[in-house]
Amino acid sequence: MSDKKTKGIWKVISASSMGTMIEWYDFYIFGSLAVVLSTKFFPTDNPTAAFLSTLATFAAGFVVRPFGALFFGRLGDLIGRKYTFMVTLMLMGGATFVIGCIPSYETIGFAAPVLVLILRLLQGLALGGEYGGAATYVAEHAPKGEKGYWTSWIQTTATVGLFISLMVILITKASMSKESFDEWGWRVPFWVSILMVYVSYLIRKNMDESPVFAKAKSEGKTSTNPLKESFGHKYNLKFVLLALFGATMGQGVVWYTGQFYAMNFLKTVQSIDSSQVDMLLGIALILGTPFFVFFGWLSDKWGRKSIMMAGMLLAILLYRPIYRAMYATTDLANKTEIVEQTKVVPSMKEVDATKMDSIYTTTKAYTDGTAVEEIKTKHFENGKLMIDDKGKDKIETKVTKKINSGDMWFLVFMVFVQVIFVTMVYGPIAAFLVEMFPVKIRYTSMSLPYHVGNGIFGGLLPAISTYFVTTAKDAGDPEFYLEGLWYPIGIAAVCFVIGMIYIDRKINTLHD
């Protein structure tokens, strides 16, 4: 490729990637702060239910992504790629900023979760239109035979967006007290997004339309009814379904397991300090992100299918051993407590005229450097211990572990391995989808299977897997923490079988 063309496509990638990265940042700020948000926008009398409600609200944004794909995909095939994902950028940024402004549940009651849900739905609709536009736009600028390499840069944006969201949260936490962050500081990452969106808008407004789409439009070869041509014709519908059940469905669950499920597992099941989790995830993401480009480039040489199927197979075989090793690493049963350093500090907190909390804060130290804080809260009303909705004494126990550097780096490696699986299935997927469909209906046709696979199958993963873990724990299963993995393993296995049987290597050059 000539220097002029190379410079031109880098300009395209930079503009597209920055906007897409910011949209992912906006989308994942909510997931990154799920534990905190569960105490702000939902009733706090049942922490587990509040956390599950937060995850369900987070998942709702994924569920509507296919509708955003249909609406904005149709728009993109009718009027153009550029203007469509300008709209999605502004919609996403505005919704994210407003989430940071909503009063808490204590202030406005059930209006808080309702408003958050509405804004999450708007975020999901916007993201449904963003990815297809950016991937299509870059692919239509890329030289023949190099789509995997150039579109893989777009693939890094989701992970970079997650990484930046974690870093913004860490910096915000470090700049204020724990009490201030819990009271109002958690809103700052939502507010920051509006500045990032403004910068991206300034960059994107100067972009030209895709030359491939512009040519098709000038020749009168664009579609007058993209939805009908995409899903109403049996031949094209076959490829839409193959893209979903043979590729994006498995890619979606691998993506969310390797990043979001890992984060929730470390924070809620392993009870590791939130800042340490954000830090180790950030390191693993930095180390793993270049492999998106590597596997995208490799797919130009070896084919998309072989790379993606290998990533799914490795995930299917290794998820349970990986998470078993992660859990054992911080399991206090495998550590030696320094008993003489254990301290218990009792305190009382008056909730209102009739309610009182009795709090016992226990700190423990272990020989390997692990430090544990356990806060046990007993809720009393009129002098009597309250009963929860299951008829048991209302006692809450919160455990926070500060892990040693050895455990920290082992967990970084375990998450990094999962990120490698993600890069194998996700790096080639944009080029794979673009090449399956003709220009005139490409935006619509590729967006739907991508967002069903990621939005429905992937986006529901945190809520479904957390439910499986909670149910297994209540049933007394000693390996309850592994039960949530059956969902991604099962979905990825079905996708692997369908992909291996029905995906043909010729798809790589169908519309290259």
Automatic annotation (TrEMBL):
<feature type="transmembrane region" description="Helical">
    <location>
        <begin position="21"/>
        <end position="42"/>
    </location>
</feature>
<feature type="transmembrane region" description="Helical">
    <location>
        <begin position="408"/>
        <end position="434"/>
    </location>
</feature>
<dbReference type="Pfam" id="PF00083">
    <property type="entry name" value="Sugar_tr"/>
</dbReference>
<feature type="transmembrane region" description="Helical">
    <location>
        <begin position="83"/>
        <end position="105"/>
    </location>
</feature>
<keyword id="KW-0812">Transmembrane</keyword>
<feature type="transmembrane region" description="Helical">
    <location>
        <begin position="239"/>
        <end position="259"/>
    </location>
</feature>
<feature type="transmembrane region" description="Helical">
    <location>
        <begin position="150"/>
        <end position="172"/>
    </location>
</feature>
<feature type="transmembrane region" description="Helical">
    <location>
        <begin position="48"/>
        <end position="71"/>
    </location>
</feature>
<feature type="transmembrane region" description="Helical">
    <location>
        <begin position="446"/>
        <end position="465"/>
    </location>
</feature>
<protein>
    <recommendedName>
        <fullName>Major facilitator superfamily (MFS) profile domain-containing protein</fullName>
    </recommendedName>
</protein>
<dbReference type="InterPro" id="IPR005828">
    <property type="entry name" value="MFS_sugar_transport-like"/>
</dbReference>
<feature type="transmembrane region" description="Helical">
    <location>
        <begin position="111"/>
        <end position="129"/>
    </location>
</feature>
<feature type="transmembrane region" description="Helical">
    <location>
        <begin position="184"/>
        <end position="203"/>
    </location>
</feature>
<keyword id="KW-0472">Membrane</keyword>
<dbReference type="InterPro" id="IPR005829">
    <property type="entry name" value="Sugar_transporter_CS"/>
</dbReference>
<dbReference type="InterPro" id="IPR036259">
    <property type="entry name" value="MFS_trans_sf"/>
</dbReference>
<keyword id="KW-0813">Transport</keyword>
<feature type="transmembrane region" description="Helical">
    <location>
        <begin position="485"/>
        <end position="503"/>
    </location>
</feature>
<dbReference type="InterPro" id="IPR020846">
    <property type="entry name" value="MFS_dom"/>
</dbReference>
<keyword id="KW-1003">Cell membrane</keyword>
<feature type="domain" description="Major facilitator superfamily (MFS) profile">
    <location>
        <begin position="12"/>
        <end position="507"/>
    </location>
</feature>
<feature type="transmembrane region" description="Helical">
    <location>
        <begin position="306"/>
        <end position="323"/>
    </location>
</feature>
<keyword id="KW-1133">Transmembrane helix</keyword>
<feature type="transmembrane region" description="Helical">
    <location>
        <begin position="279"/>
        <end position="299"/>
    </location>
</feature>
